[in-house]
Amino acid sequence: MAVSKLCPIFSVLISLLMLTSTVAAQTNSSEYCVSSNSSYARQLTLAPGLTVAFNLNGPSIDVLATIDQTVGWLGVGFAEVPGSMIPAKVIIGTAEPNTVQAYETTSRNGAGVNPATFDTVTYGAFTQVEDKAETTLSFTVSQRTVPGLESGAETYMVFAYGAGEFGYHGTNRGSVTVNLVTCEGTLTENTTYRKALLAHGILMALAWLLLTPIAIFSSAFRPIFTHFKDDTGLWWFHSHVTMNILGLMASTVGFGVSFLLVSQINFTDKHHILGLCVMIIGWIQPFNALLRPRRVTTYKQHNDAPKSVWEFYHKGVGYIGMVLAMINCKLGLDLAFASTGLFIAYGVCVGLWLVAYVTLYIKYTFYYQPFDMSVRYNEKPRTDDARSENFNQSRSGDLHENSSKSRNTASI
Q1: Which one of 46, 91, 182, 362 is separated from 27 by 20 to 30 angstroms, measured CA to CA?
Q2: Using N-to-C axis directions, what is the helix angle for 191-206 and 235-258, rounded to 10°?
Q3: pTM higher than 0.70 for the full model?
Q4: CA–CA separation, 215 vs 160, rounded Å?
Q5: Cα distance between residue 85 and residue 22, in whole Å
Q6: What is the pLDDT of residues 27-82, one digit of tens each?
């Protein structure tokens, strides 16, 4: 496929990145603070599946944050700048160890999250309700902790949560501007993160769960398909190159989108580290392909040392990259708190590729005879040189050799 034909496809991939934007949605105040918990007078919906109920009790405020999934930590705080988590006073509950503690955030790195110097939490509890797939964080702090509350002005609330130990929250964060006294405010939804997360997931799944496996399979099992018709000798080559190019384009754009999901370049999570390794493998493979030794011209040259070493490296790195990428897709779903349906779809996809590989491998190994193409074409057994020539057509897929034979056939 010509490069010009791939440009429109690449443009579509780039457009996914351009779709990301930030919007703010006004929330109806009559529905904003309706509490579903009889123990609390008011309730806010900070994000889908995340609510904060609260009571204003004299000099203090009682808060109950509830999220509809089991998380390792959950934090709710009060910022000084709308839409920003820095600086802020945050109360964080963790499962391991089971504690609730107040922190102050001053920067985006770990050194900027420190135990608070303001009024401490007078009551705190962090509970994981696994049978309901629910986590709650409750605490009581002085109203002086909440900027704007005592004066009746707006308060900038923030939240974040994570799956495992307390650490970087990624896209699992948000903010809301609200008057806690009148319950009027604006829910600020940063759709940049959500759209970037969606684009990143779609592009990486397309690259590593569809395009790259097709590219690898078309090369690994090319003799199975080559013998169907005389003119299919280059089918595997075109498929291998085209699918790899499209897969690399999709994954590269997806890798670029991923930087919208982090506040700084900090490869600390397993998903981030493994993702970088996979991308390096993906970028190296095209250059490795350019170093392919000269084509095989005789049967004896098929197993010569340079070509054997190159094939071992190129194929081995390709398989390793694909397997690591599939594993990393699972880590990405874990990191994004993906729905059960996405995990099922992932398992089905990987399972189908595994079944396809085993089936084709058995057919290739036990039922196909790559060194005796004369039997496949109902010809008499011929000399080693003639047989090696037939083998070269199906195994090496050399473009010039096949094109020359097609022209000779047409002239006859």
Answers
A1: 91
A2: 160
A3: no
A4: 40
A5: 16
A6: 434 455 777 888 898 888 887 788 899 998 888 999 999 998 888 899 998 888 77
